[in-house]
Amino acid sequence: MALDLTWVIGGPQGGGVESAANIFAGACAGCGLKIFGKREYYSNIKGEHSYFGVRVSDKEIRSNVIGITMLAAFDAETLFRHVDDVHDDGAIVYESDLEQVKTDEIPTLDKPFKERLEKHLSSKNKPLTIQGALEVAKERGVTLYPISFKTILSTLAEEMNNPTIRGMFRMLNVLSVSVSIGLLGLPPDTLLRSVEKIFSSKPKIAEMNKHAANYAYNYATAKYQKFKYHLSPIQSNSDVILVQGFQSTGLGKLAAGCRFQSYYPITPASDESVFLESNETFDVENNRPGSTIIVQTEDEISAIGMLIGAALTGARAATSTSGPGFSLMAEALGWAGINEVPIVVTLYQRSGPSTGLPTRHGQDDLLFAIYAGHGDFPRIVYASGDIEEGFYDAAECFNFAETFQMPVIHMMDKFIASTVATVKRFDPTKITIERGKLLEKINDDNYKRFTPSEDGISPRSKLGLENGIFWNTGDESDEQGHISEDPVNRMYKMDKRAKKIEVALETIPKEDQVVNHGISDFCLVSWGSTKGPILDAIEMLKKDNYNVGFVQVKLLHPFPQDYVKSLLKDVKTIIDVEANYSAQLGTLLNENLDRKVDYYILKYTGRAMTCTELYESIKKIIDGKAEKRQVLSYGV
Amino acid sequence: MASNLSDYKTEVHNDWCPGCGDFGIVSAIQMALAELAIPRHKAAIFSGVGCSGKTSHYVNVYGVHTLHGRVMTFAQGAKLANPEMTIVAAGGDGDGLGIGAGHFVAAGRRNVDMTYIIFNNGVYGLTKGQASPTLKLGLKTKSLPEPNVNQSVNPIALAIASGFTFVARGYAYDVRQLKDLIVAAIKHRGLSFLDVLQPCPTYNDINTRDWFAGMDNLDEITKKPRPRIYKLEDTGYDPVVHIDSPEEENEKLTQALIKSNEWDSKIPTGIFYKNEMIAPYDERIGDRIPNYLENPPAYQEISSNGKSITDISKILDSLQI
Q: What residue ranges define each of the domains in chain A, with the CATH number in brackets?
């Protein structure tokens, strides 16, 4: 039987949940297993509940599932929030000291959740305590592993002759991971290697944590038998990296030659800029060492302004932001449009409107990206479906920007940003660099920036180039770039810019515009990070002998109308899948196809779709038992 | 060696109002570029939006007419990506001190090696004369329905407080002094700010050319006008921070702030403050990226035969299982 389990660790924000999850993921990946992990957290620095779910399998996985195989908890809130999500045949590893904690004693349990929880416990005639919640779980068949992590800490303090360890609650994380790994039967050496890697920049702390991990691992394996669902190392392709989404676009930008990025701090986009700044210098083949300048600006208006200024010098330049920041960029986006400046804006979407759910997932900004800014101007909106696409697409977006001389908005989102997964090592040799009509030399002094050309794309000079002087202005302008309000010139310039959109649609290879994952009578149409859950759900459906197609639209603007139409022409039922309320791709489909979408599967809780709920929803549609609009809701 | 002044002029029709102070400023910019003999392709004028925004179209170097309030953001991005360029940003008082005030302050903190000129006339000209952030409280210029209800911002003091390392004021009708100030500002290593008093003949009927010349303020005995404008350099004022000490810096900052508060009867022009002890932004980047100035973003090779040449293998190795 294929191995596929989900391990969840939770704790207060700032308590090291993420390091623990990374240790777990690293240990499993080190055994050749596939990982798909996702972090959920509040907009908070310390104290609120955060958790990390890591799905492990020996086959390819691309999404999360409903339910938990093993929950690791060293605080009461994690138990209260996730206990009911543990499968009947799952397990809970927890701090035994917590059993008497009452629901009233946890200030971070928000009222609606607390009410639901207390009602549930009362209905089972259980006390409103951890013990009560655990009893409910035990009665369902859940295996409990009560462990006094605090006693382990004290023992470690004595053993290592270091009394401060007794109060090192951050180490509870490492202990609970190590106990889990022990119960799940993985060898200790991969655990220790993973601990060492996570703390590689702090050798002393690494040593201490390795000691603790080893102790907890041995403690668990001596005291308990292996859990019934356990993991074993497998042979696998060695060319695998364990990578997070924001790193993929960062790496893609570096490889593509991005040499300037300006940004303003915003969740979840700024992780990418910080990652780039941490890697600001690098080697360049047969060349001097290279570098990229990362500038933290005073706001997102400045971020896009600086980006445009840098792009005018010929450097490949970008910014990375989220919805609220992108809102501020709208005016300058139009400036880049009218002046035909190649810029790349990486838009890590989150749940809006306004501040919305600032640390949660959503695909809310598709239509906004397509329409942002006043006036008619061309832009490209391009969406990646997963971490791997994020890398190659980040590079491709610069080619689009420079070839067609227009702003490119690269759609990413929180789900991809904070996913950690095992992925085939990125291959920079697959990246091509196309700089379009960028000039390196101009011999005469007749240069005009907006000189007419059949494809609407004029040769592009750059600041500093001899004989290449041009003018740019946010006003309508003539061929040189000087202000012009002449109606004939206005038509020339509008037509010229609009022509480039047609050319883009003709030039971008079809397979880059839309990915045809298979066509069937029932066909899913989607964009962005729903790709993973959809592909996993389709595999699940196949096992039940349901055949479902999937068309993934990557180029959202200009919309590949004819191509999407031709792909869907024999499809009987079109099912639109997206993580937003209003079905924004659905709106585009209804506009562009000669027919309407038949079903919508939507989710707007701020939590990403799991393949399980998607599978159930699609099955309901095929069985003819579904409403036209299916709304998914799973997730803490 | 100076270049030919006419090389720096474009043939674009200048549509500023007759008598506008802007003419003097654009002439001074052209003269300064010619005197410094900056090759035309090595200079760029960035401008904001408003009457002053058109400046970039009248100077025959790279010209980037940006967005209202955002000129400094575009200009700094260009300078950081290509530090070989001489960058002059030009904008209005509403542009730089109203809608763009946040960028003004942030620019001071960076100290990028470039020049920012604000055309200061107290009104929003292109939108028919509303009060700008530098119009004094209680003044009622021609097209205001009621007197101005806001205090004015002090551009010199704000620049000093924000961290600009060269702060000066010129007068649009003293083109020779203004040219000298622009030359000094461009030569300065760090971010230089020039507040240029620029009478708007159409909408500011209070701070007019005659008002600056003191035509309303005659000497009781000689009956001659007493000009409001005077030059700091004529008073023995020394704006320069000569030694890197807090005492020296405090002294020079304090005197500049006090001078910046003079208005009404006596209005100083010239250099208020100059401090080259503070590292410009490029040096700060250079501390982290040693070959930044020699191989800046604009000049880096990124591909060979259409293939990426950036080596990201070390980062990938660190992610390798």
A: 4-223 (3.40.920.10), 243-429 (3.40.50.970), 437-508 (no CATH), 512-632 (3.40.50.920)
